[in-house]
Amino acid sequence: MTSQPPVSPGRIVAIGGAEDKTSDLEILKRVFELAPVANAEVAVIASASGIPDQILPAYQAAFERLGASRVHALDIQDRKQAADPGNVQLIHQSGVIFFTGGDQLRLTNVIGGSAVLNAIRERLMAGAVVAGTSAGAAALPSTMIYNGASADALRKGSVNMTSGLGFIDYLIIDSHFLERGRFSRLMQVGATNPEYLGVGLGEDAGVIVHPNRVLEAIGPKHVIIIDSRNLARSNIADLSMGEPVAVENMILHAMVSGHGFDIEARRYLVADELKALLADNQ
Question: From CA 51, how far away is CA 101, in angstroms rounded?
Fold first, then answer.
């Protein structure tokens, strides 16, 4: 893989779902702290959710508790709303843009190619934080999983992928990863294209994607990395649909909070190494 340019001046945060919204708010606090100085406005986008009336108030309360000056609860449920100048303006005002969970295909269908999505990209390049949880996390990269069995996904054709929102390349994010046993989903992704790095997020766990393409694990649970770049062999190209896939030499890492991973170097970083690498890129 050729070296990629920095992601953006802003940070991207992917969360595995079921993050604490009522107690210590550990992950949401980190998201809020990454906002640009003097911009404490937050936009919460519930396009992925089928129950926005239940989800938006919980995030509004959590971010207000963290010190947000304003929380814009954006129930953008169709493409007309995704083109609305008022919604675009609220995005431009915000230092944090947060995608809720739900269905990532609904999210990309509603805001893909829209004025709202263009505004979010502009804000990210200007230093704002773009974060998502569950389906909102899965949709952040250029390519996303949108369907696939959890228990027996290491079969040709059992994992469906399509274009995501395009905030970061060469990463596939899967949420609720440990709780739903989704290891074989990311293993098939790696067998299909070893260039992609698989990131499996446990619930109440997340990663910050820093501008130098270094991942930082956050939250009390695990982040799993599945690295297929040095894959030795796989039979996936020779199989019929539904047949079991064989893989050789796929590497797995389990990260905890404060540890990291260098996407380009494919290198695990313990806490001291991560701090040094991030300090060098301030």
Answer: 10
End-to-end CA gap in the chain: 25
pLDDT tens figures, 132-153: 999 999 999 999 999 888 888 9
Q: What angle do CA 118, 125, 212 make, to 5 degrees?
A: 130
Measured CA to CA, the distance from residue 99 to residue 44 in angstroms comes to 6
**Domains of the chain from N-terminus onward:** 12-274 (3.40.50.880)
Tell me whether residue 80 is exposed, middle or buried, using C-beta atoms within 10 angstroms of its C-beta: 0 to 12, 13 to 18, 19 or more: exposed
**pLDDT tens track for 31-77:** 999 999 999 999 999 999 999 999 999 999 999 999 999 999 999 99
Integer Cα distance of 176 and 62 in angstroms? 21
Answer for the pair 234, 250: CB distance below 8 angstroms, yes or no.
no
Residues 94 and 128: their CA atoms lie apart, in Å, by 7
The strand ranges marked E within 111-150 are: 129-133, 143-148
Specify the residue for token string 């919460």: 44
Q: Nearest 10 degrees: CA dihedral of 88, 89, 93, 94?
A: -30
**CA atoms of 188 and 190, how far apart (whole Å):** 5
Residues in the chain: 282
pTM for the model = 0.96
DSSP 173-191: EESSTTTTT-HHHHHHHHH
Closest CA to 189 of 235, 156, 152: 156
